[in-house]
Design brief:
Chain lengths: ~775, ~525
C-alpha cells in the first residue's frame, strides 16, 4: 500500500469513503443519528468529491508526462477474488464456437499456450473515462445529497434514504473504476439494487412498490443479455479483464489494442488473397469479429438498453419517477442510467470489429439511440406529469448519446461522453427544480394543477430556466455544445462514404427533429409550470413557498454548471488537457487514432492494403489534429450548429405560442385528424406498456398461476399427506402407553423374550 | 482372579472419592443447616476441584506416577485407565455442574442437601461406570446411579403424581436391574471370570472346544442389552419414561434424560466390546442394536409428535435419541464382528460425540423449564411457552438453539453428531462387511434421516409457540438465576461445539482409540499376560 502512487491511493479512497459513510449510517442511523443521518454521507461525499477532482488533476498531469503505450491507464490491484487455474481451454472451446458460425476464430496467441486461469481480481483502474465519470458522479451526488437534506427532512426513513444513497455512490464509483467485466457486472447489479430500493422507497405506496419491481424486472432482461455477453467474452478471449495481466492480454488491454495497430501495417498477409480477408484482419488484431463478435456487441447493447432505458426496454424509467425526487435526479437522470453509455464507450474496440457478413454493431447502437431519442421526444410532448416529461427527456437524451457512440468516430464518441457529462448537470438541475416545485405543492406533480409559480418560487424559476435552455441546446449553454457535437458527428457519417451512410442520414434528420421536440416539450413544461395565472393545488396548504436555502443552493450551483460546463470544456481550441483530451487518453478511445482502427465509413471499402493504410493514416492524422487542436467543435459544422440552434429557438417560440396564456391553440390543433392520431399515440406512450402486458406479463402470470396451482394442490397435498403418516403411526402405538405398571413390565419382558427367541434362532 | 486393591487404585479413584465425600458431607451438614446457597457453592467448588484432579490424571499425558497410556490401557485392580473413561469423566463433571446449577433451588427447603448429595452420588456412580473392567464394580456403579435417582424422584415433588412416577420408576428399575444381574450371572457362568478383559479369551477357547455353559452367552447378551436398554430408554424398555418425566419435576426429568443414558451407553460399550468380543456374538449384538435403533428412533419420534405436555414430549425425544446412540453401537459391533483386528473406531466416536451434543442440548432445555417454572409449580402445557420470545428473549433464544441442535440443524452440535453417525454407518470398509450388512446400515441411515425430519415437527413446534404465538397468560419465571445460567451455558456450549467440531471430534476419536488394542492384545497375548 505504501508503494502506491497518488493516483492509486485516490482511486481507492474515492469509493471507500462512501462505503464507510454508508456503514456508519446503517449502523448508527436507526438508533442514534435519526434526523442527522445525512451527516456521515454528506461528509464522505465532500471528501470523495474533492479527491475526485484531485484525481482528475493528477491524471491530467500524468497524461501530459506520458509517452508510451496507447492512451494512459493505471490500475491498482486490491486482492484476488477468484482464481481457478487452467480454467480456460482455449483450443477446444474456441473451435466449437468457430464451427458453429462457420468462421475460423483464433487468437494472437498460439493455440498451444491458450489455456489460462480464471482469475478475477478486485482491481481498480484509472483512465480518462473513469476519472471524468468519478468527478461527475461524486460532484452531482454531493449536490443532490445536500439538496436531499432539505427535501427528506420530514421523512421518517431518513437514515434509510441516506444509507441507500451512500451505497449507491459507492457502487457507482466502483462501477466506473472496475477493471474487469465481472466487477463491472457486480456493481452494475448493485446500482440496480440501489435503484430498486430507492424507487420503492415509499413502499407503502402501491405505485412505488410496483414501479420498483418493474424497474428491477425490466433491468433483468438487459442484465441477462449482459451476462451472456460476458460468457461469450470469456469463451472467446479467455479473460474478463480490461487490463493486461501476466496470464492473458486484457480484452481492452494495451497488448491487444497495440496489436490492432501494428498488425495493420503488415501488407504481406492480407495481400495473399485469402478468401476471407476482412476476418483475417480481426484475427491478427486480436479481436474476434463475425457472428461471435456481433453477438457480443448486441448482447452488451441489450444490457446497456436495460440500464440506460433505451428502446425497447425504456418502459421502466418513467415509472421510476415514483421514487423521491433527489433519487430521480441522481440515479435516473445523472448517473446510473448513463452506466450503459459508459459501458458501450468503454467497449469501443469490441464494437469496432468487422462483423461482415453480418450487421455492423455500431449501426445497431446508433439506430437504437436515434429511435429512442425520437420516440421519447414525441411521448414527452403530451405528458402532464412534470417528472415524467423529464424522464422521457432523459430517455431521449440518452438516445442522443447512443447515437453518438454509434458513429464510431473518435469525435462522435467523445461527443457522446461530453453530452453525458453536461446532461448530468442540467438534467439533475431540472429534476431538482421539479422536486422543489413538488415540495412546495405538497406532493402534487401534475402540471395541470398548478401554474404561474414564477413569482412564488423565483430561485426555482430562474434555475429551471437555465436548465431548460441548456436542455434545449441554446448557445452558449452546456447542452448546445454537446448536442451539437453529436449532431455534427452523425451528420459527418451520413454524408460520408460508409455503407450505412443513408441510415445515418435518416438518423441525423431524426436527431434534428428531436432537437426541435426537445425545445418544444421542455418549454411546454416550463410555461405550464411557471407562467399563466397563479394556481396552487389544495394539497400544498401553507407549504406553497420557495424552498429553503439548503435546497436552492445546490440548484444554483448546478445552474452555474449548466451555464458554463459546455463553454469551458467544449470550446474550440481546447487543449490536450481539456475534456476531449482527457477522454481521448482512455486506451479504448485512444486506439481510434491509431491506423489499425476500423472506422465505420471505411467498412465497405475493400481497397488494397496499401491504399487502406495511407487512407487510414491520413484519416487518423486528421482526427488527431481535429481532436487535439480544435476540440469538439469543428468549424466545418457551423451549418449543423446553426440548424440546431434555429430549431431550438423555433421550438421555444412555438411552445410559447401554444402554451403561454390560454391553451386554445392546442385544443384547436388537436382537432386536426393527423394531430389527433399523433396525440393519441404520444399520450398513450406508443402503447408499449399494454403490448408488453399482453405479450410478456400475461403469459408469465398464466404460467405462474399454473405452477402455483400445481404446487398448492399437488405438491402440498402430497407433502401434507406424507406429513400425516408419522403421527398416524404414533396413534397406533398410543394405546400401549396405558399407564399401568404391570403392563409396562409385561411389555418389557415380552421384549426380552422376543430378543431371546431371536438369539436362540440365530445361535442354535 | 483376585484383584489387589493398592494405593495406586485409590489415587486413581480420587475424583470419585471426592464426589462421594462431598455427598456424605452434604447429607450430614443438611441435618444442621438448610442454607442452600452455601452448600451448593461448596458442592460447585468441589466439582471444580474434581476437574482439577482430572487434569492431573490425563492418561495421555501421564498419571500420578508418570506413566502414560499410549494405545494400551492400564489396569489397576478392577479399574481400567484409558482415554475413553477419562473423556466420559469430563462429560460427567460438566453435566454435573449444569445439573447442580439447574437444581439450585429444586426440592423442598429442608431436604435440599439430601437432594444435591444424591446428585453427587449419581455423578460418582457414573464416573465409576466409565472406568470399570469388572462386572461387580460395574453393577455397583450402575446401582449407585439408580438408587439415589429414586430418592431424588421421591423428594423432588411432594405430590401424588410424583409418587406414582417414583414408584413406577422404582419397580421397573428394579426389574431392569434384575435382568441385568441375571445377564451378568450368565456371563460369569459362561466365562468363569468377572474381568471383562479376560472374557474374550475364554469365549474364544470355549467356542472352539465347546463347553455347555458357553451357550448361555447369547442369553447373557440379550439380558445385558435389555437391562441397559432400560437405562437408555430404548424401545421396548422405554415405557416408564413418558409417565415418569411427566410426573416428576423438570429438574428430575433432566437428570433422568441424561445420567442413566450416559451410564447405559458406556456400560454397553464396555461390556459388548470387551466382554462379548467374539464374532458370532458380536454379529448377534449388532443385529439387535440395529433393530433397537430402528424401533427406538421411530417410535420415540412419532409419539413425540402427539404430545402436548412438554416433559412428556421431551421424554419421547430422549427415547428417540437413544435410538441414534444405538446406531453408533451397532456400527462398532458390526465392524468388530466382521474383522476383529480392523481398527474402526468411528461408531464409538460418533456415539460419544452424539451423547455430548444430546446431553448439553437436553440439559439446556430442561434447565429452561426449571427456570420458567418454580418451586411450587411446573411448566406443563406447550402453550405456556407462548410469547416467550417477547418476555424473555434471551432464554427463548438459548432454548431455540438447543432445540435446533437436537433437530440437527447446522452448524450446531447436533448436526455434526448426526452427520458423524450417518457417515460412520455408511462408510464401512467393503472388505470387512458383506453386502447385506451394508444394505441394512443403509436402511438404518435412511430411517435415521427421516426421523430427523420428523423430529423437526415437534421441536420446531416449540420454537413456533415461543416466537409466533402471542402470549396468553404470561409465565412468571421463578426458577432463579441458577437454571438460567445453566440454560444459557448449555446453548453456548452447543454453539461452541457446532463452531469447532474438529476439536471435539479429535477428542472423541482419541477416546475411542483404545478399543482396538485391547482386543488385539487380549486375544493374542493371553498367555504372556502375567498378573
Amino acid at each position: 500500500m505504501s508503494d502506491w502512487t497518488t493516483i492509486q491511493k485516490l482511486l481507492v479512497a474515492i469509493p471507500a469513503l462512501p462505503l464507510v459513510a454508508t456503514m456508519v449510517t446503517a449502523l448508527l442511523g436507526p438508533r442514534y443519528l435519526r434526523g442527522k443521518s445525512h451527516l456521515p454521507i454528506v461528509f464522505g461525499l465532500v471528501i470523495s468529491c474533492v479527491l475526485s477532482l484531485e484525481l482528475l488533476r493528477q491524471l491530467n498531469r500524468a497524461i501530459e508526462n506520458h509517452e508510451t503505450g496507447i492512451g494512459y491507464e493505471t490500475t491498482v490491484d486490491l486482492w484476488t477474488w477468484a482464481s481457478v487455474p487452467e480454467a480456460y481451454d482455449g483450443s477446444g472451446s474456441r473451435k466449437t464456437i468457430g464451427d458453429s458460425t462457420g468462421r475460423l476464430i483464433t487468437d494472437v496467441h498460439d493455440a498451444s499456450d491458450s489455456s489460462g486461469p480464471f482469475h478475477i481480481a478486485v482491481t481498480l483502474r484509472a483512465d480518462g473515462l473513469t476519472c471524468i465519470m468519478l468527478a461527475m458522479v461524486t460532484l452531482v451526488a454531493l449536490l443532490i445529497a445536500i439538496y436531499a437534506v432539505g427535501y427528506m427532512h420530514q421523512d421518517r426513513g431518513c437514515w434509510r434514504f441516506f444509507t441507500y444513497i451512500g451505497l449507491f455512490v459507492f457502487s457507482m464509483t466502483m462501477l466506473v473504476s472496475a477493471s474487469n467485466f465481472v466487477l463491472l457486472y457486480v456493481f452494475w447489479e448493485a446500482v440496480g439494487l440501489c435503484s430498486y430500493l430507492l424507487i420503492g422507497f415509499w413502499y407503502e405506496k402501491r405505485e412505488a412498490a410496483a414501479a420498483g419491481t418493474k424497474a428491477f424486472l425490466v433491468n433483468r432482461v438487459g442484465d441477462f443479455g449482459f451476462a451472456l455477453a460476458l460468457f461469450f467474452i470469456w469463451t472467446v478471449y479467455g479473460t474478463l479483464n480490461f487490463h493486461d495481466t501476466q496470464n492473458a492480454p486484457g480484452v481492452l488491454g494495451q497488448e491487444r489494442l497495440s496489436s490492432m495497430q501494428q498488425e495493420f501495417g503488415r501488407p504481406g498477409e492480407s495481400g495473399e488473397g485469402h478468401p476471407r480477408g476482412a476476418q483475417d484482419q480481426d484475427v491478427r488484431t486480436g479481436y474476434v469479429g463475425g457472428g461471435i463478435g456481433l453477438a457480443i456487441c448486441l448482447l452488451l447493447m441489450l444490457g446497456a438498453c436495460g440500464k440506460s432505458a433505451q428502446f425497447p426496454l425504456h418502459v421502466w424509467l418513467p415509472d421510476a419517477m415514483e421514487g423521491p425526487t433527489p433519487v430521480s435526479a441522481l440515479i435516473h437522470a445523472a448517473t446510473m442510467v448513463t452506466a450503459g453509455v459508459y459501458m458501450v464507450a468503454r467497449c469501443t474496440p469490441l464494437f469496432a470489429v468487422d462483423c461482415a457478413p453480418y450487421l455492423d454493431p455500431r449501426a445497431v447502437v446508433a439506430t437504437i439511440g436515434g429511435l429512442s431519442a425520437l420516440i421519447a421526444g414525441i411521448i414527452a410532448m403530451t405528458q402532464n406529469d412534470l417528472k415524467r416529461v423529464l424522464a422521457y427527456s432523459t430517455i431521449s437524451q440518452l438516445g442522443y448519446m447512443f447515437l453518438a457512440l454509434g458513429t464510431g468516430s473518435l469525435v462522435g464518441i467523445i461527443a457522446g461522453m461530453f453530452h453525458l457529462f453536461t446532461h448530468a448537470f442540467f438534467k439533475s438541475l431540472l429534476f431538482l427544480g421539479a422536486g422543489s416545485v413538488m415540495h412546495a405543492m405538497g406532493g402534487v406533480i401534475d402540471m395541470r394543477k398548478f401554474g404561474g409559480l414564477r413569482r412564488l418560487m423565483p430561485m426555482t424559476f430562474w434555475t429551471f430556466l437555465a436548465g431548460a435552455l441548456a436542455l434545449s441546446g441554446i448557445w452558449p449553454l452546456a447542452g448546445f455544445f454537446s448536442k451539437d457535437a453529436i449532431l455534427a458527428a452523425a451528420y459527418d457519417v451520413g454524408h460520408g462514404e460508409a455503407a450505412y451512410a443513408s441510415l445515418f442520414l435518416w438518423l441525423t434528420y431524426a436527431a434534428f427533429l428531436t432537437a426541435f421536440l426537445t425545445a418544444l416539450y421542455t418549454f411546454r413544461a416550463f410555461y405550464m409550470t411557471f407562467f399563466g395565472a397563479e394556481e396552487i393545488p389544495a394539497e400544498a396548504g401553507h407549504h406553497a413557498r420557495e424552498s429553503r436555502p439548503i435546497m436552492t443552493v445546490p440548484l444554483v450551483i448546478l445552474a452555474l454548471g449548466a451555464l458554463a460546463v459546455g463553454w469551458i470544456f467544449g470550446q474550440p481550441g481546447a487543449t490536450k488537457s481539456g475534456f476531449a483530451g482527457v477522454a481521448a487518453s482512455t486506451p479504448s478511445l485512444a486506439v481510434m487514432v491509431h491506423p489499425g482502427y476500423r472506422a465505420l465509413d471505411t467498412a465497405a471499402e475493400r481497397k488494397s492494403a496499401a491504399e487502406r493504410k495511407s487512407a487510414a493514416e491520413k484519416k487518423s492524422a486528421a482526427e488527431k489534429g481535429s481532436v487535439a487542436e480544435k476540440g469538439l467543435h469543428q468549424d466545418s459544422h457551423r451549418r449543423v450548429a446553426i440548424i440546431s440552434l434555429v430549431l431550438a429557438v423555433l421550438g421555444i417560440g412555438i411552445a410559447g405560442f401554444l402554451y403561454l396564456g390560454d391553451a386554445r391553440e392546442v385544443r384547436a390543433i388537436i382537432q386536426w385528424p393527423v394531430m389527433k392520431q399523433l396525440h393519441r399515440i404520444s399520450y398513450g406512450k406508443f402503447f408499449f406498456d399494454p403490448v408488453y402486458w399482453i405479450l410478456v406479463v400475461l403469459p408469465g402470470l398464466a404460467l405462474a398461476s399454473i405452477c402455483y396451482a400445481f404446487d398448492r394442490w399437488l405438491i402440498d397435498g402430497l407433502v401434507n399427506t406424507i406429513g400425516r403418516i408419522p403421527s398416524g403411526i404414533g396413534r397406533l402405538f398410543r394405546n400401549m402407553q396405558c399407564g399401568m405398571l404391570q403392563t409396562y413390565a409385561l411389555w418389557m419382558l415380552l421384549g426380552v423374550l422376543t430378543l431371546l427367541g431371536s438369539a436362540v434362532w440365530h445361535m442354535w | 482372579m483376585n484383584p489387589q486393591v493398592d494405593w495406586n487404585t485409590v489415587w486413581l479413584l480420587l475424583p470419585e472419592l471426592l464426589l462421594v465425600l462431598l455427598a456424605v458431607w452434604a447429607y450430614v451438614a443438611g441435618a444442621f443447616s438448610h442454607y442452600r446457597n452455601g452448600s451448593n457453592a461448596i458442592l460447585l467448588a468441589g466439582l471444580i476441584l474434581g476437574g482439577y484432579l482430572l487434569t492431573q490424571q490425563n492418561p495421555s499425558h501421564g498419571l500420578w506416577d508418570g506413566t502414560a497410556v499410549q494405545g494400551n490401557p492400564i489396569f489397576s485392580g478392577p479399574l481400567i485407565v484409558d482415554p475413553f473413561g477419562h473423556t466420559i469423566r469430563w462429560l460427567v463433571l460438566v453435566v454435573g455442574g449444569l445439573m447442580l446449577l439447574s437444581m439450585w433451588r429444586a426440592g423442598p427447603e429442608d431436604l435440599s442437601t439430601e437432594y444435591t448429595g444424591s446428585l453427587f452420588l449419581i455423578l460418582a456412580g457414573l464416573m465409576i461406570v466409565t472406568r470399570t473392567d469388572e462386572l461387580v464394580l460395574l453393577f455397583l456403579g450402575l446401582e449407585l446411579v439408580s438408587i439415589p435417582t429414586y430418592i431424588m424422584l421421591f423428594i423432588g415433588r411432594q405430590r401424588t403424581a410424583a409418587h406414582e412416577a417414583t414408584t413406577k420408576y422404582f419397580y421397573l428399575g428394579i426389574l431392569s436391574s434384575g435382568l441385568l444381574l441375571y445377564g451378568f450371572a450368565l456371563l460369569y457362568g459362561a466365562t468363569g471370570t468377572m474381568q471383562l478383559r479376560e472374557m474374550p479369551d475364554v469365549l474364544a477357547i470355549s467356542g472352539a472346544g465347546g463347553g455347555t455353559l458357553i451357550r448361555l452367552a447369547p442369553a447373557a447378551l440379550v439380558l445385558v442389552i435389555a437391562g441397559l436398554g432400560f437405562k437408555m430408554a430404548a424401545v421396548p424398555f422405554h415405557f416408564y419414561a413418558p409417565d415418569v418425566y411427566e410426573g416428576t419435576t423438570a429438574a428430575n426429568a433432566g437428570l433422568l434424560s441424561v445420567a442413566p443414558k450416559i451410564a447405559g451407553l458406556i456400560a454397553l460399550v464396555r461390556i459388548m466390546l470387551a466382554g462379548f468380543m467374539k464374532p458370532d456374538l458380536l454379529e448377534l449384538g449388532w443385529q439387535m442394536a440395529l433393530a433397537l435403533a430402528l424401533m427406538t428412533m421411530t417410535l420415540g419420534n412419532v409419539m413425540a409428535l402427539l404430545q402436548n405436555n412438554v416433559r412428556r414430549m421431551m421424554a419421547y425425544s430422549a427415547i428417540s435419541h437413544a435410538g441414534y446412540l444405538f446406531i453408533g453401537v451397532a456400527v462398532a459391533l458390526a465392524v468388530a464382528s466382521g474383522e476383529v483386528s480392523s481398527a474402526n473406531v468411528g461408531g464409538i466416536s460418533a456415539a460419544l460425540f452424539y451423547l455430548v451434543a444430546y446431553a448439553l442440548a437436553t440439559l439446556g432445555i430442561f434447565a429452561t423449564f426449571v427456570y420458567l417454572a418454580g418451586a411450587d409449580r411446573e411448566l406443563d402445557h406447550i402453550d405456556e411457552l407462548a410469547g416467550l420470545s417477547k418476555s424473555r428473549p434471551m432464554i427463548a433464544l438459548s432454548m431455540t438453539i438447543c432445540l435446533l441442535s437436537l433437530t440437527g440443524v447446522p452448524p450446531l452440535a447436533g448436526f455434526w453428531g448426526k452427520l458423524e453417525l450417518f457417515f460412520c454407518a455408511l462408510c464401512f470398509d467393503p472388505k470387512t462387511v458383506d453386502i447385506a450388512t451394508r444394505n441394512w446400515f443403509g436402511v438404518l441411515v435412511i430411517v435415521g434421516a427421516m426421523n430427523a425430519a420428523i423430529s423437526a415437527g415437534y421441536y420446531l413446534r416449540l420454537v413456533g409457540v415461543m416466537y409466533f404465538r402471542p402470549a396468553g397468560k404470561s409465565v412468571q419465571p421463578t426458577g432463579g438465576s441458577g437454571p438460567m445460567i445453566a440454560a444459557i451455558a448449555s446453548a453456548v456450549l452447543v454453539i461452541a461445539i457446532g463452531m469447532m467440531p474438529a476439536w471435539f471430534f479429535e477428542r472423541t476419536n482419541r477416546a475411542a482409540e483404545p478399543w482396538q488394542p485391547i482386543v488385539a492384545t487380549t486375544i493374542s497375548n493371553h498367555a504372556s499376560e502375567a498378573r
